[in-house]
């Protein structure tokens, strides 16, 4: 298969409506989408990524009026979160509509729903005129793609079309909140801070950080977002061992940066989160064997960043 490259959301949407797989940018990472109501096309997502069939997909919508096509109910907690954070990097778990093909939800009776805020994603989804389930557009388990080039590297020849945008804004996936529980539960930390959700709703549960805790959310497998290189977490750069095939990424510079094969010092947590997946992929291109990654304070976006670092380091 030849993967078409385009900057036209209308062209990409036309391919999706005809049963194709289309990778498209959002404000978080690039997603790999299909028409939610073409089950054979949705199954191709799992095949293209090598994704386990029991891992549910997040459905992307252009407008809130489409929610009724995929969800049976929108609880008051979800309404309030949509009012504040949508469109944006927030996924809400809702009761599934009976008419939504079960392949989208991996057989679950719940569905994850998100309204991206990136203008190019909105234009694409509007042109699709159908709900679009879309996991990250990468090989399963690899670092999520934050550029169309990363998508082409992983999935070129396996998907019909890539909608070309720039580097994604946030670089960390959406926060996933289960609104079928009382109080709601954060299943995956992401670009919307847990503290911000608490300010809106008050009581919020947090799922324990293990692979069995949140089967209703993507991105909670124990080993995820992993480069070929081994990732080791360090509190300070002094705990990173220099080497020609070693790399370092963090907020503080190591004392001997020239002794590493690559060093990435980030200005702040936002920049670190934005660059993380790009850095992990860049290290693979440099044939780095060990990446020392500095953990950060688990507040705000730091919670999501530490989650991705921990999963990338899992063996």
CATH topology of the largest domain: DHBP synthase
Distance from N terminus to C terminus (CA atoms, Å) equals: 33 Å
Query: Averaged pLDDT, please?
Result: 95
The side-by-side strand order for the widest beta sheet comes to: 7-4-6-5-9-10-11
Major beta sheet, specifics?
A: 7 strands, mixed
Per DSSP, the total helix count is 9
| CATH homologous superfamily annotation of the largest domain | DHBP synthase
The proportion of residues forming helix, as a percent range, comes to: 25-40%
Rg:
19 Å
Notes on the protein architecture:
Helix 1 runs parallel beside helix 5 (119-128) and helix 8 runs parallel beside helix 9 (301-313). The protein is 29% helix and 20% strand. It folds into two domains: 4-206, Alpha-Beta Complex (DHBP synthase), CATH 3.90.870.10; 230-313, Rossmann fold (3-Layer(aba) Sandwich), CATH 3.40.50. The chain has helices at residues 9-17, 39-49, 67-70, 76-85, 119-128, 148-155, 194-201, 269-285, 301-313; strands at 4-6, 22-25, 30-33, 58-60, 90-95, 110-114, 132-133, 161-163, 175-178, 185-188, 205-206, 230-234, 243-250, 260-265, 290-294. It contains nine helices and 15 strands. The protein has a seven-stranded mixed β-sheet with strand order 7-4-6-5-9-10-11, with helices on one face. Strands 1-8-2-3 form a four-stranded mixed β-sheet, with helices on both faces. Strands 12-15-13-14 form a four-stranded parallel β-sheet, covered by helices on one side.
